[in-house]
Write a structure and sequence with these properties.
The structure is a single chain. By secondary structure, the chain is an alpha/beta fold. The protein is 55% helix and 12% strand. It is built from 19 helices and 12 strands. The strands form 4 sheets. A 5-stranded parallel β-sheet has the order 7-8-9-6-10, with helices on both faces. It has a 3-stranded mixed β-sheet with strand order 1-2-3, with helices on one face. Strand 8, helix 8 and strand 9 form a beta-alpha-beta unit. The radius of gyration is 24 Å and the shape is globular. Bound molecules: adenosine-5'-diphosphate and magnesium ion (MG). Adenosine-5'-diphosphate (ADP) binds at residues 107, 111-113, 144-150, 276, 279, 304-305, 308. Magnesium ion is lined by residues 148-149, 206-207.
């Protein structure tokens, strides 16, 4: 069955599209009422959902005879997993299992552009990889999008290269918390503690501010920290704020964070942004012209994810329409980012656009769509909202459930309702759906 879906899909798109976008696309699971695909790249995942959602739905229908909803997931699992690192050539070191979780292969020191703002951070981070335990803990903080996760994972990867015998554990504090909750539920706290406190030689924990307001998890982490630290194991911690501003963290934990090396990551200056833009494009195998990189660096500051977003957009646009990556195209892309307070921010999300379109067409507002009213018109608007998000934007059932704050099964049911209605050639549903789709496409064409 899985192969059939893939074969049909392959016939529906050009070879170029297939090679370009579907090279890592696989059927992960054909479930009772949902098909799950996996891809090896987060960006491609979103792109496939947005752009090829319709074709994928059709292929499923043809292969199975049923209109299953589908989801695309990123192939790397979020759980902690044990892998065996491939031995470097000629090395006599035995293969040892390492624990890694979700490391992005692109987040390495080689791919990190060092401007003078972050030279010290870069040097210390490398030193931590070479000499684990020297700066302990190593605490990195700064506002989002400045490369903290990139540095943290670079430390993890370099440590694995330099010390293949060391067990490296990278985790977000959210994963730490979820692991702890699962362990409590399944009565396996002993194993949970064993894993963090005994098995890791270097523990890297991202976004520790997530634990604000979660006293129980903070407490567990405090003990983990102490055991590892006492045993001379390296800890590397990232946060969006200075340790002292981790309000509600216990003082004893904050003072632990401060006892090693605390460093702030600084926003890159224009010239560094220029180099970063070039590097980001190189990672997608594209050489960015100098003038384009300069315009991007001059116009997009702050969060580097926006810079990355603009570059990806440029690359996609140029490959789809066979256009040069030049200043004209760059200008277009920059315009499609709306200005807000002098800074560039991404355009409204599809969900926001849809709320607007529905309100324009029916007067039914966002609050009513997400509310609990069972009035016929509102129920219909709600179902159409979910249907269009799925069909036109390829949003997954899980995402829609989150957006509308409804159960998975309710979302599936709502979407099926509209599908059925369209299948039965219900004229008023059809024209309603079309009207909404037209309204949002007109908006995005302008934007
Ligand atoms: P944070 O964790 O601080 O929110 P990330 O590490 O996710 O930020 O960085 C955002 C994006 O910017 C990533 O794609 C990252 O690779 C890139 N990036 C950040 N700093 C640099 C740098 N100095 N050189 C190259 N890329 C960078
Ligand atoms: Mg981060």
């Amino acid at each position: 069955m899985s192969q059939r879906i893939v074969n049909i899909l392959k016939k529906k798109v050009s070879k170029k599209t297939w090679d370009h976008w579907f090279s890592t696309f696989e059927v992960k699971e054909v479930g009772e009422d949902v098909v799950v695909f996996s891809v090896g790249n987060l960006f491609i995942k979103d792109w496939l959902q947005t752009k090829y959602g319709g074709v994928i739905s059709k292929a499923i229908l043809e292969a199975t005879g049923k209109q299953f909803p589908f989801e695309i997931v990123f192939k790397d699992t979020s759980e902690v997993k044990t892998v065996t690192k491939v031995e470097p050539k000629g090395s006599l070191i035995r293969k040892k299992p390492l624990m890694i979780s979700n490391l992005n292969p692109e987040y390495t020191f080689d791919n990190f552009v060092v401007g003078k703002e972050n030279k010290a951070l870069y040097e210390v981070a490398k030193e931590v990889s070479s000499n684990p335990g020297r700066y302990n803990p190593f605490f990195i903080y700064g506002i989002p999008g400045l490369g903290k996760t990139h540095v943290l994972q670079s430390v993890a990867q370099l440590t694995m290269d330099l010390h293949p015998e060391k067990k490296v554990l990278y985790i977000t504090s959210e994963q730490f918390m979820n692991g702890m909750i699962d362990a409590i539920k399944s009565n396996t706290m002993t194993q949970f503690r064993e894993m963090y406190r005994r098995k890791a030689d270097i523990l890297l924990i991202d976004d520790i501010q997530f634990l604000i307001g979660k006293k129980g998890v903070q407490n567990e982490f405090f003990h983990t920290f102490n055991e590892l630290h006492d045993a001379g194991k390296q800890l590397v911690i990232c946060s969006d704020r200075d340790p002292i501003e981790l309000n509600d963290f216990h003082n004893r934990l904050i003072s632990r964070f401060q006892m090693g090396m605390v460093m702030e990551v600084h926003p890159p200056e224009a010239n560094t942004r220029y180099q970063i833009a070039k590097k980001m494009a190189m990672q997608e195998s594209v050489k960015l012209p100098d003038d384009v990189a300069k315009v991007l660096a001059d116009n997009i500051d702050g969060n580097l994810r926006r810079l990355k977003g603009a570059i990806i957009k440029l690359i996609v646009q140029s490959s789809i329409y066979n256009e040069e990556i030049d200043l004209t195209l760059t200008d277009q892309i920059l315009k499609s980012f709306h200005y807000a307070g002098g800074r560039l921010v991404p355009p409204p999300t599809p969900a926001e656009q849809l709320y607007k379109a529905i309100e324009g067409a029916t007067g039914i507002a966002k609050a009513e769509i997400n509310g609990t009213s069972r009035t016929k018109e509102i129920v219909l608007a709600r179902q159409v909202f979910m249907y269009v998000l799925k069909q036109s934007y390829g949003r997954s059932v899980t995402e829609i459930a989150n957006i509308t704050d409804r159960k998975h099964s309710t979302v599936i049911h709502s979407i099926k309702k509209i599908e059925k209605s369209l299948l039965m050639r219900n004229e008023s549903t059809r024209s309603f759906v079309n009207k909404i789709i037209e309204a949002v496409s007109a908006k995005s064409a302008v934007g």
